[in-house]
Specification:
The chain is mostly helical. It contains four helices and no strands. Helix 1 packs across helix 4 and helix 3 packs across helix 4.
């Protein structure tokens, strides 16, 4: 994704959904077990399929937010 860092993207998703709902939307262990921004970023940077899921959720979240505005 151009123009936004993975850290900013994840921070915004966590602020909106919280870790619990985020773990339901993207069921990966780094969101379920003792989640933290640092551990999640490490996992997402090393795991392309998980990063793709999170990026898709972010795009959907932004599209919905723009639609509501």
């Amino acid at each position: 994704m151009a123009g936004i860092t993975l850290e900013a993207l994840l921070t915004e998703l966590v602020a909106h959904y919280g870790w619990l709902q985020l773990s339901e939307l993207v069921p990966i262990n780094c969101f379920k077990k003792d989640p933290s921004l640092k551990s999640s970023l490490t996992f997402l940077r090393r795991t392309p399929w998980a990063r793709t899921k999170v990026e898709k959720l972010f795009i959907q979240f932004k599209a919905e937010a723009q639609h509501e505005a």
